[in-house]
């Protein structure tokens, strides 16, 4: 697997590179966003680790240009404990975030997790599966039906598309803007309230207690994700 690292701090960049190579990854390292973009265009990159604050081209602009061409997993690194960095990065298409200082062991684990998820997604695209199951929930793409514990769940068209999008991407955090683009198909406009209303409606159908959701979790300051711990499928 080919990993791209972009960070202007030599010590951090070299530490990450060495650690990834010790785990049998092929690593390409860049000191700034412009250099990283050149590598990304020339090499078959499977995952990128991008620092937010870099000279010449920062991590956000680099991510934006990468997303014009590819959906490879991207992990962002930031030295600022600011939720707005995370919101912006996730809105641009980042898959994960780590704040500096960070554990290299944790970064390696997250790289592995993102690559596994990416590989599973590619396999699922090669062999389309109509029925998707997550814990007690299941959804049939072809018949446009949803079930909980085998019992039908009544959903409107947009509610169905919203739940389907979450179930196709379990454990992934989405901003309201990303959800609006995916479900309502609007690229440059989104209605914050519309997303929240439909999230509430989906919760009223799939949650035992919508006030204490087990499935559709709110990630404060960022958005929502489908996540459930400790329940058998």
Question: Can you tag this structure with a few keywords?
Answer:
233 residues; 43% helix; alpha/beta; Rossmann fold; 2 domains; four-stranded antiparallel β-sheet; Arc Repressor Mutant, subunit A; 11 strands; 20% strand; five-stranded parallel β-sheet
For the record, the count of structural domains works out to: 2
Helix content: 40-55%
Main sheet strand line-up:
2-1-3-4-5
- Write down the overall mean pLDDT: 89
Q: What is the top-level CATH class of the largest domain?
A: Alpha Beta
Level-2 CATH architecture of the largest domain: 3-Layer(aba) Sandwich
Report the end-to-end length measured between terminal Cα atoms.
32 Å
> What low-confidence regions span 5 or more consecutive residues with pLDDT below 50?
none
Tell me the number of helical segments per DSSP (H or I, 4 or more residues long): 8
- CATH level-3 fold name of the largest domain: Rossmann fold
Number of strands: 11
List the helices and strands and how they pair.
Layout: E1 2-6, H1 10-22, E2 26-30, H2 33-42, E3 47-51, H3 59-67, E4 74-78, H4 83-92, E5 96-99, H5 104-126, E6 131-134, E7 137-140, E8 145-148, E9 151-153, H6 157-168, H7 176-184, H8 192-206, E10 216-219, E11 223-226
Parallel strand pairs: 1-2, 1-3, 3-4, 4-5
Antiparallel strand pairs: 6-7, 7-8, 8-9, 10-11
Helix pairs in contact: 2-3, 6-7, 6-8, 7-8
Q: Could you give a short description of this structure?
A:
The protein is an alpha/beta fold. 43% of the residues lie in helices and 20% in strands.
């Amino acid at each position: 697997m080919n990993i791209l690292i972009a960070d202007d701090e030599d010590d951090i960049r070299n530490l990450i590179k060495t650690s990834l190579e010790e785990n049998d990854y092929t690593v390409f390292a860049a000191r700034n966003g412009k250099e990283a973009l050149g590598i990304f265009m020339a090499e078959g990159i499977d995952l990128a680790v991008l620092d937010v604050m870099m000279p010449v081209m920062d991590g956000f602009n680099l991510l934006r240009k990468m997303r014009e061409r590819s959906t490879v997993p991207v992990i962002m690194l930031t030295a600022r404990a600011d939720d707005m960095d995370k919101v912006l990065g996730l809105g641009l298409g980042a898959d994960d975030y780590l704040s500096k200082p960070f554990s290299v062991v944790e970064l390696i684990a997250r790289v592995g997790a993102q690559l596994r998820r990416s590989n599973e997604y590619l396999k699922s695209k090669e062999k389309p599966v109509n029925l998707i199951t997550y814990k007690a929930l299941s959804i049939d793409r072809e018949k446009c039906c949803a079930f909980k514990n085998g019992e039908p769940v009544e959903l409107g068209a947009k509610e169905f598309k919203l739940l389907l999008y979450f179930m196709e991407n379990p454990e992934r955090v989405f901003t309201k803007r990303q959800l609006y683009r995916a479900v309502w198909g609007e690229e440059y406009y989104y209605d914050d309230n519309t997303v929240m209303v439909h999230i509430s409606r989906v919760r009223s159908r799939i949650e035992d207690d919508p006030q204490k959701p087990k499935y559709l979790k709110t990630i404060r300051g960022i958005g929502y994700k489908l996540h459930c711990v400790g329940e058998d499928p």
